[in-house]
Amino acid sequence: MAGKRMKKDYEKVDIEKLYSLDEALGLIESFNKTKFDETVEIVLCMGVDPKQSDQGVRGACSLPHGTGKKVRVAAFAKGDKALEATEAGADVVGADDLAERVLKGDIDFDKVVATPDMMGVVGKLGKVLGPRGMMPNPKLGTVSADIGKAVKDIKAGKVEFRIDKAANLHAPVGKRSFKQEQLKNNIIALIEAVNRAKPSSSKGTYFKKMSISSTMSPGVKVDVATLVKNM
Fold first, then answer.
1. In terms of Cα–Cα distance, which of 211, 213, 183 is closest to 34?
2. pLDDT one-digit tens code per residue, 15-42
3. Is the sign of the CA dihedral 224, 212, 170, 149 positive or negative?
4. What are phi and psi of 7, to 5 degrees?
5. What residues have CB less than 8 Å from 23, skipping those under 6 apart?
6. Domain boundaries, given as residue ranges, for the chain
7. pLDDT digits (tens, 9 = 90+) for 102-132
8. What's the rounded Cα separation, in Å, for the pair 34 and 193?
């Protein structure tokens, strides 16, 4: 049954065509729905060389309508800052005690933020948090004296992005249950953030290809050049 459903969805997509963003989102909306609320994701093929240290593309973006996913946040903070993180909605707050939990493998959260004075403690957790993509980073706003804002931003739908070894960038932009306009606003906000993260050494075409899909759907190619041009 699932195979027949997927086949019908694939038949709707012209693999040779570059769709406008509106057309692509319309196709995603038309695909058969599953029993769960699928995540909608975009993939960008970037015109940079990831082997060059000065051509990395990395950053963070606050999606206007969030990701549709509840994110558990751990905050490394002490004293008043710990209270600030708690009041902002952090799910786990601590200092050395939290570090001990992490080292024991007790990681029941998705993102980590920290105040600058806690980085001496957090730095020792690199081998545990690093491979999970959880290490706090000042450039991404996850190391901040304004710990309350850092927590609230993540809870509200802030996503991080970075290219992989093949110069591709994957990022969630919402759920199938979102309205098309909400997904469109999120995608445009993300692409604008990626555009701002363009390395100064990057030459030629920066956005080479783009596709959009949901968890169980075919990928739909988007005319990213026209999309960026019209922003």
1. 213
2. 999 999 999 999 999 998 889 999 999 9
3. positive
4. -60, -40
5. none
6. 15-67+158-229, 73-155
7. 999 999 999 999 999 999 999 999 999 999 9
8. 31
- CA dist 3 and 7 (Å) reads 6
The residues that bridge with 214 in the sheet, in sequence order, are 40
Nearest to residue 32, comparing CAs of 174, 210, 221, 215?
Answer: 215
pTM above 0.70?
yes
Residue 40: CB atoms within 10 A of its CB come to: 24
What is the bridge-based pairing of β-strands 207-214 and 220-221? antiparallel
Q: What token pair was written down for 108?
A: 């029941």
* CATH of range 15-67+158-229; options 3.30.190.20, 3.40.50.620, 3.10.20.30, 3.30.450.20: 3.30.190.20
Query: Can you tell me the distance from the alpha carbon of 171 to that of 41, in angstroms, rounded to the nearest whole number?
Result: 6
